[in-house]
Write a structure and sequence with these properties.
The chain has a single domain, classed as Up-down Bundle (Growth Hormone, Chain: A). The protein is built from six helices and no strands. Helix 2 runs antiparallel to helix 3. The protein is mostly helical and about 140 residues long. It starts with 7 loop residues before the first helix and ends with a helix.
Length: about 140
């Protein structure tokens, strides 16, 4: 028995909203960096990401979850653009290339790892997912 709790279209929308938000965040992130600076833009991206996480945690229906994923994607898109710029501006010139390349590698590697984790959960038993989602209840009971 495989996880089939929502219609396929809602599942696809929930997953793709983070990517759509990241595209929008990256598109507007450059303008925000130029207009407001790197540090305020990073703080704004963190705030948007945190609000999105709270919205997803409090989601009572799929549409609220979709909105939360969109916010998280916006934060990720802005931060993915801003972090390498911030590192490039404040790192010493002799190690700047290494630090910026490492930052971009970690950002890209994290995305790749998240896709691998998602792939690993595509054919998982529903009981295992239920236990995984509710492990906090079992640990704090």
């Amino acid at each position: 028995m495989y996880l089939n709790l929502m219609e396929i279209n809602k599942q696809e929308t929930i997953v793709s909203m983070a990517i759509a938000g990241a595209i929008l965040g990256a598109a507007f992130g450059g303008w925000m960096n130029d207009r407001y600076g790197r540090k305020p833009t990073t703080l704004l991206a963190d705030a948007i990401f945190t609000i999105g996480a709270v919205v997803m945690a409090a989601a009572s229906d799929p549409y609220m979850l979709i909105f939360g994923r969109l916010l998280v994607g916006l934060g990720v898109g802005i931060a993915s653009l801003t972090a390498p710029l911030y590192v490039a501006e404040f790192s010493p010139s002799d190690v700047r290339g290494f630090l910026v390349s490492t930052t971009v590698l970690y950002i890209t590697g994290g995305r790749f790892l998240s896709y691998l984790i998602n792939l690993g959960f595509t054919e998982v038993n529903v009981l295992f997912l239920f236990l995984l989602e509710n492990i906090d209840l079992y640990l704090n009971a």
